[in-house]
Design brief:
- The chain is 19% helix and 41% strand.
- The protein is of the alpha+beta class and 74 residues long.
- It has a four-stranded antiparallel β-sheet with strand order 3-2-1-4.
């Protein structure tokens, strides 16, 4: 498993909330010792999601940091 740490840097609804939401993330790079350590090994990238489920989108706040775990789907 690979663990990444990203910050939500943008969140908006598409043409209307029934169509879904756009959520953007960037890797963390400062603000804590953990973030600086993470940045040393993963210096760049971005993640963009389009979500249809409002309840899921409501759980993600702009400016908040999130772990994203990557593991094989077997």
């Amino acid at each position: 498993m690979v663990r990444c740490k990203f910050v939500c840097n943008s969140k908006s609804s598409l043409s209307n909330e029934d169509d879904g939401f756009y959520i953007g993330f960037m890797p963390v790079y400062a603000g804590s010792k953990e973030n600086e350590e993470f940045f040393k090994y993963t210096p760049a990238g971005q993640l963009e999601l389009q979500l249809v489920n409002k309840a899921t989108a409501d759980q993600i706040e702009c400016g908040k940091e999130y772990y994203i775990d990557i593991s094989p789907a077997e």
